[in-house]
Design a protein that fits this description.
35% helix, 3 helices, alpha+beta, two-stranded antiparallel ribbon, 4 strands, Ribosomal Protein L24e, Chain: T
Length: 97
């Protein structure tokens, strides 16, 4: 399983540890990923995702998972989440008709 946020795409970054003597050694900056269960009101079910804490805050700010996914382009999402977005969109269109 990759260390990548399913909504924002945040991934591992690399850099240096820098000592007092200015010696540089390679290191990795890992994203703060959490396993989170979010409720989709449109689908009426819980969806489990691996998200960065920043993405969790963004979802809450936008008013839930459905609202966040509708505002995000499908090309920016992981394939699994893009399918979820497509299902939500279809369910909303079905409800409107």
């Amino acid at each position: 399983m990759t260390r990548r946020c399913m909504l924002t795409g945040k991934t591992v970054q690399s850099g240096h540890n820098v000592s007092h003597a200015n010696n540089k050694t390679k290191r990795r900056f890992l994203p703060n990923l959490q396993e989170k269960a979010l409720m989709s009101e449109t689908l009426g079910r819980v969806v489990r995702l691996r998200l960065s804490t920043n993405a969790i805050r963004s979802v809450e700010f936008h008013g839930g998972l459905d609202a966040f996914l509708m505002r995000t382009r499908a090309s920016e999402l992981e394939p699994q989440v893009a399918r979820l977005r497509k299902m939500i969109k279809a369910k909303k269109a079905e409800a409107a008709a």
